[in-house]
Amino acid sequence: MDIQQLNFTYPGLDTPSLRGINLRIAPGERVAIIGRSGSGKSTLARLIMGLHTPTEGQILLDGLDLRQIDVADLRSQIGYVSHDMPLLAGSLRDNLTLGAHYVSDERMLEVAQLTGAHELARQHPLGFDRPVGERGQLLSGGQRQMVLMARALLLDPPILLFDEPTSALDNSTEDTLRQHLKAWANGKTLLLITHRMSMLSLVERLVVLDHGRVVADGPKAAVIEALRKGHIGQASV
Ligand code: ATP
Ligand code: MG
After folding, report:
1. Fold of 2-228
2. Sign (positive/negative) of CA torsion 163, 165, 170, 175?
3. What confidence tier does 2 reach under pLDDT thresholds 50, 70, 90?
4. Average pLDDT rounded to a whole number, residues 6-22
5. What is residue 101's three-state secondary structure?
6. How far from the centroid of its chain's Cα atoms is residue 209's Cα?
7. Nearest Cα residue to atom 17 of ligand 1
8. What is the C-alpha to C-alpha distance for residues 111 and 122, in angstroms, rounded to an integer?
9. Which of helix, strand or coil describes residue 49?
10. Residue 100 pLDDT > 80, yes or no?
11. Closest residue to atom 16 of ligand 1, CA basis
């Protein structure tokens, strides 16, 4: 993935939320994107998913501008989970497969087991047909995250883009998921947005955003050291 001179301003706003972002991410690389609240992390993720169009600059995937890639293709390339993503008011199954009817029950069960979402089916007489409620309100925040992560893994995409995937999980569930994630991400490109130090064990490279700019980018240990010494603005995990 190659992000070039990316600027983005939300419609109706004066201040850009992303400024001059340049990032090249090699296949198989594991990168965390950190930075304070409002620094632009989720905005960057949404641009990578084609949910917003760059104001200036471009994002290339395998040399192709995102704008040339079909939304369905993008979904099979990038497994995306975001902290502000609601579930649909359907069944657990609908939410795991998102209407991808060609997906086998075995595959659905497999990914549900990977994230622990299968427990939600086991606990309910309707199993995978249990309703999740409007925006998934019948589930807890952590349970919704398990469903979203299972969905992201369903099509076995080469890239995982996880925006705060564990923000609503308790420590022990997060520990378990982190170990699983290490295995799932094996051989894949991982872009992980997180405020949790513990999650950084999954990556080798750290990118720090501050006020919509990249203020640091490099090997994890070097960036953490620079943050500790206060060499990188006010950005923090
Ligand atoms: P957090 O760690 O709290 O999730 P973040 O780094 O993900 O923060 P973003 O959500 O990308 O931050 O927000 C970056 C900037 O863009 C903020 O100033 C925010 O107010 C603004 N912003 C985010 N979403 C929108 C939106 N839908 N419309 C207008 N402005 C937005
Ligand atoms: Mg965010």
Report:
1. Rossmann fold (3.40.50)
2. negative
3. very high
4. 97
5. coil
6. 16
7. 38
8. 15
9. coil
10. no
11. 17
Q: Is the distance from the beta carbon of residue 82 to the nearest atom of ligand 1 less than 6 Å?
A: no
DSSP 8-class letter at 216: E
Q: How far is the CA of 191 from the centre of ligand 2 (A)?
A: 13
* Global model pTM greater than 0.85: yes
Q: Is 214 helix (H, G, I), strand (E, B) or coil?
A: strand
- C-alpha separations of 129 from 18, 99, 121, 147 in Å: 41, 14, 8, 14
Query: Among 176, 143, 171, 148, which Cα is nearest to 160's?
Result: 148
What would the pLDDT profile of 31-83 be if each residue is shown by its tens digit?
Answer: 999 999 999 999 999 999 999 999 999 999 999 999 999 988 898 899 999 98
Ligand 1 contact, 211 CB (< 6 A): no
Report domain extents, the chain. Answer: 2-228
Q: Are 205 and 185 in contact (CB under 8 A)?
A: no
Going from the C-alpha of 156 to that of each of 110, 160, 171, the distances in angstroms are 11, 9, 26
d(CA 84, CA 233): 27
Q: How deeply is 236 buried, as exposed, middle or buried, from its count of CB atoms within 10 A (0-12, 13-18, 19+)?
A: middle
Ligand 2 center–CA 232 separation, angstroms: 20
- Is residue 188 within 8 Å of 202, Cβ to Cβ? no
**Residue appearing with tokens 């992560």:** 149
Region 175-189 average pLDDT: 89
Q: What tokens appear for 223 in the block?
A: 């960036």
pLDDT for res 233: 65
Q: Which residue lies with its CA nearest to atom 9 of ligand 1? A: 40
